[in-house]
Amino acid sequence: MQPGIYYDEKTKTYYVSRRYKDWKGENKRLFKRGFKTVREAKQFMNSFMARLDGNQDMVFNDYIEIYYSDRESHLKLNTFLTKKNIIEKNIRPYFASYKLVEITPAIVMKWQNEIISKELDDGHNYSNATLKTIHAQLSAVFNHAIRYYGLRQNPAKVVGTMGKPEKKEMLFWTTDEYKRFIVEMMDKPVSFCAFEVLYWCGIRLGELLALTRSDFDLKKKKLRINKSLQRIHGKDIITPPKTVNSYRTIDITEFLADEMYTYFKSLYGLKDDDRVFPITKSYLHHELKRGSKAAGVKRIRIHDLRHSHVSLLIEKGFSALAIAERVGHESIRITYKYAHLFPSKGVEIANSLNDEWEDMDDE
Predict the structure, then answer these.
(1) Which strands form 248-251's sheet, in the order they lie side by side?
(2) Which CATH superfamily includes the segment(s) 5-159?
């Protein structure tokens, strides 16, 4: 019998008892009873020791627990919970019994086929966007094992993502469309001011809902963004903003400062740390639908107001870098997703080169 595994005559079962050193170098004891066979006891002990050493002989099921432990403190709570939900629902059940080193591209392809053909409760399959998201999470799991636990290859990267690419239309309102809409919101000050901030500042919905009175400096016409509100397990949680670049201070217009001053005066007893928009996402979705219908403008999402702000700044001639800093994009590459809205410089470049050529000819 393998050292560390013993038979209990009284219970007719096996148990594991073994000394080991933890990550601090301190002596610990691994002890667990109730195994019906030597094989079960051996599998438990070997998995525990592999997990302790962080080597790729550990089974996927054990590695995932390490992965969660490593990543949880580095991610926003809602981001971590979303990641965990995807893994538990679509990844862990399939790969649970495999050792990390045993998972090949062929195994990943079989998994992809199952996920692609999986029928949901409504009778449909996963959308292309969801398939890409699920695959990205699996790839992230393997990348982490490569970086920290000696895995040599990411089989998910070798296979490539699943789901056909989708080209989504980027919706936004022109200033004229927005002005028609906001007139319909004037009957409700909280809705009116919320949409004014969203459109004229380009902030995210979570950032808007987390705003407090102290975030506004109306004399200097400044708006501070340093937090976000998320709905997690039925509770409103204030979290850090989406990215490091999301921490920012925005210059606001004089008319918006005046509107917010009037709005604050209507909120009797408002304190500096009180939320100024104590409403929900669903409330604003309903108001957006109501106002769009009344104004006769096309339906867009709340996030499309952010797109509308970016398109307005592009129309005004501001650089991608300036726009990225204002709206808190993690990278300027995100701003360049709006490249089709930036004015083309092709004719301008051609004319400039033509002028150079004519100057050479004159010489």
Answers:
(1) 216-217, 222-225, 248-251
(2) Tyrosine recombinase, N-terminal domain (1.10.150.130)
